[in-house]
Amino acid sequence: MEKQTLETKKIVHNNISYLQYDLATDQAKTSFFDISDINAIKELRQEGLQKMHFLNLYSIFWFYSGEGTHIVDFDEYEIGQGTVFFLSPKRIRAYRNLSNVEGVAMCFPEDFLLKIDNELQGRIKTKMFYPANGFAHCKISEAAKEKMMPIVKLMQEASALQYEDKSLQASYFASLLSLLLIDMIRLGEWGDSSFSNVSSDSFQVYAKFVQMVEDYYIEHHAVKDYIEKLGVSQTTLNQYTQQYAKTTPLKIINNRIILEAKRLLRYSTTRTKQIAFYLGFKDDSYFIKLFKRNVGMSPVEFRQKKK
Hints:
single chain; 307 residues; alpha+beta; two-stranded antiparallel ribbon
């Protein structure tokens, strides 16, 4: 992939300034919810879609038809009929070789997602936006699409109207989104069956752990830091992560650290030592060992390979 030209952007961590990647960003047309036709976006932003960029919003891209390639961070995914992609804020993405695409794209901020019922919100975040392994996507069959399209049409109709009561409008969109995501979880082809009993105590603990890692992976690198807040033993948490993610708690933590390290190495000129300190390592040699153990090459080698 072609390396993007970046502006330098200073961030502060522990009273020290560092450089962070600063890719192009896109914003939704409204402050809380936007639903747009994918083909219209393609026509308006053909060049922008092909460049690596990110949104400061949650986003869902549902391709009814067409083909192409969706690049997310450091992996490529084929776009096909019925493919749905779920992206959390700051997920770096690009779209290549789009052909005959039809579908919808939805964008909304964290505040909007918080309007959804807590239990459902936990499942949505864990399964769709912050999966422990990789990046969430599913396939919607034509039969399932027919059942969901009335909800999409209501969203499209509502987005074209002007509401005096913005709070009521936001609640209406949140209700529709809840129904749509429930159907996507229920009717989508996900390729896993480990999320069948999300009302169980074990899943609730697992979902909370995954969200905590997303929130605190820079400050907390050890499993013990999380089990103290979760109120469970390390053995219990390991059982839950094995059940729902087929991996260990430490691997989930390390994967999140490594992902951010890769982003900084690929999309900024920040030195390895600065990256290590930004990610919470007091000793950059330990960070280098962790990176090499998980990636199979040193940070310097990774940066050179991606040029």
